[in-house]
Amino acid sequence: MKRLHKIFSLLTVVLLVNATALRANEPSAVNATEHQAEESGELNVKELILEHLGDTYEWHITTIGEKHISVPLPVILYSKTTGWNLFMSSAFHHGHESHNGFYIAQEGNLKGKIVEKNATGEEIRPLDISLTKNAASLLISAVVLIVIILLIARSYKRNPLEAKKGFVGMMEMFILSVYDGIIKPAVGKDYKKFAPYLLTVFFFIFTNNLLGLIPIFPGGANVTGNIAITLVLAVCTFLIVNITGTKEYYKEIFWPDVPMWLKVPIPIMPAIEIIGVFTKPFALMIRLFANILAGHSIVLGLVCLIFVTVSLGTPTNASMTVVSVIFTIFIDFVELLVAYIQAYVFTMLSAVFIGLSHIEPHHHKEVA
Amino acid sequence: MSLLTPELGLLFWMLVAFGVVVFVLVVFGFPIILNGVEKRKNYIDESLLIAKQAREELSRVKADSESLINETRKEQAKIMAEAAKSRDLIVDGAKEKAIEEAAKILEGARHQIALEKEDAIRQIRREVASLSVDIAEKVLRERLDKKNSQMDMIDRLLDEINIPKS
Q1: In the Cβ-directed half-sphere of A151, how many Cα atoms lie within 13 Å?
Q2: Does A244 share its domain with A109?
Q3: In a domain, A356, yes or no
Q4: Is residue A368 in some structural domain?
Q5: 3-state secondary structure of A103
Q6: Chain B contact for A301 (CB, 8 A cutoff)
């Protein structure tokens, strides 16, 4: 997302140049999108938004005229024919050129990905663990988070008895609000054991959400709105829930306290319970992914409104610009809230699932 | 759609990044912070308790000292009263003794005066007697210059002595 610079460039552009010049200067259209847009003379909004929501090999900052300004990122590939390859994404010259037989596909299913041609001339993907925009953003946020939390921890190690002030004090309040407000009540008895993991999850998601809201480098990547990210988070929670689950938890799954005909001969309830085991983390994964993705899409869509209405003439364009900017600001505030809420919800649900997997036998009295 | 299929490369980086973050923060991060907070909470609770105890102790000490002061004051008053009493006693005794002594001295003086007086009277008497004898001698000598006057005298005297006899 490069909302801010879009807005700035737009404001100058709307005042100074005509529609054609605007299209040529349109900063958000990158690579393939730009070419298409230039060729057709129209802005392909869908392509543009999808590209920003997805992942790229370079961190695009802006385009001035014909010059792309972007941060090159390392590309790491393993090809069956040429082995390991490591080079900077600037070697592709923004997707225009190929390097060592690799190039960025412009069409088809693999569009936007690095591909190579195999012996039969088919386009295939090499093993691709390039440090893409999302991966780089992920690493940046990881470093930021580790530095911040370790700084706070150091302050506690040095002087645990002093009342913390300033940033550490604020973070303490934040950490304790999560700790006392979510983890303690949701996990139950064993909350101390799981608190560090759950706090890590909370702040990891929150940091990434916030970084995603910053329009330019080093933010703006759609990290928590990427399914690979939420998948890993959900799998971690799934593993913790099911590995640390008590006997009672598994008994409730495979032999729940329901009338016999629901269990034998057709294990209806166990089947439902087992599905439930998997739907819980699945819901976690989809919820975070969809919320952040939607937020980014809305902001992008609102910003694109400016460029779409260019063809409708200057008065319409100018008024739509005002509307778009106001709405974008509003949605950004909403996104700030969503960044917190989604981290909160993910942590809370993880805590609740962990709490549910640590249930104690509760029906002994009824049996006796 | 590619949005819904997890990208292998990103999955790898996410595993690495999240793994490192979780490891570092779970080992070196949050437990230290939470322990610190817990420690501080306990410290504050403890301090409050100690302060409360100290306050109680202080009020008790205060009450103690107050009662001590009261007692001392009472004691002081008692001692003062006793002192006054004994002082009065001593003064009274002294007074009595002084009066007695004075009386004794007076008595002695009176006695002495009486003795002196007697002595003086006796002396005066003696003086008077010898004077009168001298005078009488002189008178007699004068009168008895002549023989018949001497005889007259003897006669008169004899008469005088005889008259009461008769």
Answers
A1: 12
A2: no
A3: yes
A4: no
A5: strand
A6: no
Helix axes A227-243 and B8-24, enclosed angle (nearest 10): 50
Which range marks the domain in which residue A20 is found? 3-69
- Which one-letter amino acid corresponds to residue A169? G
One domain, residues A45 and A165: no
Token pair in block for residue B80: 């003062």
Q: Is the ipTM of this complex over 0.90?
A: no
How many domains would you assign to chain A? 3
Residues A247 and A169 occupy one common structural domain: yes
A121/A249 same-domain check: no
> What are the pLDDT digits (tens) for A227-272?
888 999 999 999 999 998 888 888 888 888 888 887 778 888 888 8
Counting every residue, how long is chain B? 166
* CB proximity list for A355: less than 8 A, separation 6 or greater: A186, A187, A188
Give the minimum alpha-carbon distance from A322 to chain B in angstroms, rounded to a whole number: 31
What does each of the 166 residues of chain B score in pLDDT, given as a tens digit?
A: 467 788 888 888 899 999 999 999 999 889 999 988 888 899 999 999 999 999 999 999 999 999 999 999 999 999 999 999 999 999 999 999 999 999 999 999 999 999 999 999 999 888 888 888 888 888 777 767 777 777 777 888 888 887 765 5
CA A8 to chain centre: 25
Residue A219: strand, helix, or coil = coil
CB contact under 8 A, B40 and A160: yes
Report the residue of A199, A239, A347 to disrupt the B interface, i.e. the one with the largest count of B CBs within 10 Å. A199
Q: Are A353 and A280 in contact (CB under 8 A)?
A: yes
A to B CB pairs, distance under 8 Å? 130
Q: Cis peptide leading into A361, omega within 30 of 0?
A: no
Query: Do residue B21 and residue A142 have CB atoms under 8 angstroms apart?
Result: yes
How do strand A114-117 and strand A103-104 relate by DSSP bridges?
Answer: antiparallel
User: Residue A64 corresponds to which amino acid?
Assistant: I
The phi and psi torsions of A102 (rounded to 5 degrees) equal -95, 145
